[in-house]
Write a structure and sequence with these properties.
single chain, alpha/beta, 14 strands, 39% helix, elongated, F-box/LRR-repeat protein 15-like leucin rich repeat domain-containing protein, F-box-like_dom_sf, LRR_dom_sf, FBXL15_LRR
């Protein structure tokens, strides 16, 4: 038999025979001879204990797992009940048909990666996943250009336990469908909407900020319809935000950054690339927010040893910013580096910011390298 784009079960059997020996410490006679594993004699494929089978499955790639699930009914039952993670991103053709056939079998999946190089998935495949995989927590549908709002409506009803959703590049989704999804998938912690120009609107983000207050990471790169209303809704509704990418969100202003500085105390990474309405006012608000946050830190022993504040900031092409404001930010956040090899403050395209430097020891070392101290006279 041949499955999963050309892998033969004969090859699979040979592979598994070797794995049984090394995984369980059994004899080397192969299936058909007497192998003793854990005090149990194995003479046929169906005799392999479920625990051992799942251990072997964890060592092979996803294509092999799919073929293994078709070896016999015992293997099928064990794998289908025990498999919790599956990636089909290797599938270059017929991914839609593969999902339609596998989703009804692998009903215990927690993680499913359906990322594509070329669009293959259609709504009926996502609907099947939603109808069969109700425990799903992590779903990657990136670059699924063929999907429509039907997919989001199906996920809303079938997968309420989603904590991570990547729909980057799914340009056909509407903000109405995304708003609807947020009413049901309230456990979301990671949401990637990069390039979802229609779906990522202020209206949708208001709903997300209201419904999904556990969010920790939101990617909104090149969502050009997003404005201050949407970002401020996230800031007020999602205080646990740690990562926010607003790359290319050209409508946002200082008001968004000020809301983030005042409400999202755990913010670690902020992307403002090409947000040219951002001014010094935003930088000073971030720096001032950090000062207030440091005072609050002494109230918690748990947080005392935790590094606090921004660790990554991209302000490339934010040409209205001036050196004093950005330097104030650097002074407040020691984890922001401009030095070679440690760039976590990205300022490319801002020629007037070349004088800004780290507030750490490496800045002093760099200064000494350029201006060495004179040797004492003998």
């Amino acid at each position: 038999m041949i499955g999963a784009e050309g892998l033969k079960t004969d090859d699979l059997g040979l592979c598994f025979e070797h794995m049984i020996v090394f995984s369980a410490g059994g004899g080397g006679g192969g299936i058909g001879a007497a192998n003793v594993v854990g005090g149990r004699v194995i003479t046929d494929w169906k005799d392999i204990p479920m625990e051992l089978l799942l251990r072997i499955v964890s060592l092979v790639d996803d294509r092999t797992v799919i073929v293994a699930s078709g070896v016999c009914s015992g293997w099928s039952d064990a794998i289908c009940l025990g498999l919790t993670r599956l990636s089909l991103s290797w599938c270059k053709n017929n991914m839609n048909d593969l999902v339609l056939s596998l989703a009804p079998k692998f009903t215990k999946l927690l993680v499913l990666v359906l990322r594509q190089d070329k669009p293959q998935l259609e709504d009926n495949a996502v609907e099947t996943v939603a109808n069969c995989c109700h425990d799903l927590q992590d779903l990657d549908l990136s670059k699924s250009f063929k999907l429509s709002d039907r997919s989001l409506y199906a996920l809303a009803h079938g997968c309420p336990n989603l904590t991570k959703l990547n729909i980057s590049g799914c340009s056909a989704f509407s903000d109405t469908a995304l708003e609807y999804l947020s009413n049901f998938c309230r456990k979301l912690k990671v949401l990637n909407l990069c390039g979802c120009v229609k779906a990522a609107s202020d209206r949708a983000l208001k709903a997300i900020g209201y419904n999904c207050n556990q969010l920790q990471s939101v990617i909104l790169g090149w969502c050009e319809n997003v404005g201050d209303v949407g970002i401020m809704s996230l800031a007020y509704g999602c205080p646990e935000l740690r990562v926010l990418d607003l790359c290319g969100c050209v409508l946002i202003t200082d008001d968004s950054v000020i809301a983030l500085a005042n409400n999202c105390r755990h913010l670690r990474s902020l992307g403002l690339y090409y947000c040219q309405n951002i001014t010094d006012r935003a930088m000073y608000s971030l720096a001032h927010g950090q000062v207030k946050n440091k005072h609050g830190m002494w109230e918690s022993v748990k947080n005392r040893y935790e590094e606090v504040g921004l660790m990554n900031l991209n302000i490339s092409q934010c040409t209205a910013l001036t050196p004093p404001a950005v330097q104030a930010l650097c002074d407040s956040f020691p984890a922001l580096h401009t030095c070679p090899g440690r760039h976590s403050l990205i300022i490319s395209g801002c020629l007037n910011l070349t004088s800004v430097h780290c507030a750490c020891a490496c800045a002093v070392q760099a200064h000494r390298a350029v201006h060495p101290l004179p040797h004492p006279a003998h």
